[in-house]
User: Fold this.
Amino acid sequence: MSLQSIKKRNDSPIAVFDSGVGGVSVLRALLEEMPNENYWYYGDSANAPYGTKSLEEVRRLTVSHVDRFIAEGAKAVVVACNTATSAAVRYLRQKYPEVPMIGIEPALKPAVYSGGYPNVVVMATPMTLREEKFHNLMDRYIGMAHIIPLPCPGLMEYIEHGNIHSMELEQFLERLFEPFEKHKLDAVVLGCTHYPFVSMELQKVLGENVMLFEGGPGTARETKRRLANAGLLGDCQRKGIVTFDNSEQSDEKKNLCRKLLNMPIHIRQDKQVDGVKQIKHVL
Ligand code: DGL
Assistant:
């Protein structure tokens, strides 16, 4: 799709941004919620991972990408990266008050509100868990559940390299959860957009009674609300176009994004809790 060829503002693409291929888990939810929109997916794989960088570096990278999306005509921006959201979304909303700017945060709310999950682990990058945004989020639910932050440096690299089923990955996840008595864990929040792609492996390691929560579906619903409020919902009758773009020059990441988007995923949507779907992966 040539961005210049899109004239009507409501048909302009929604830019979906991540440090790499992980934001495709959010794109999947967006397509489910709004199949007729056009999307411009941009992964900054050349600079990934973001989660082990400094706040200043992640903010600088995120702002420079978003500046370009807006200059090239995106009608809204979804920062489909928990790390980049913590670093830059507040600043970006001030810089572009007229552009719907949607971020993502670990899906702690549905995990806590659904009840019956007293011990909740939040898997995320070291930066997401270190930042004020996460501490504020955790403070909101303290007392309602035992919330255990689990930084996962090194995990996104597996997904970034397309390694989503392997013995090596399974061993990595085993080591990550070694300090826990797994039978005492009730829920795991996937607080990084890369992690839903290894949910099958995770479920294998954790056992099938542990509930997994991801932030993509909530972010997609919020995006739809924000576009509707701004009068920017697309009015196309046909299916939208998805364009993949990446800071790495080769086609490898773009092809991986396509593969991840089309990968059959085994999710069961259990029930609505507080307006939010609980999801569980079935082996
Ligand atoms: N996908 C990103 C997130 O949701 C993080 C991966 C990274 O470390 O770059 O936080």
User: Anything to note?
Assistant: Residues 55-71 form the longest helix (17 residues). The chain has eleven helices and eleven strands.
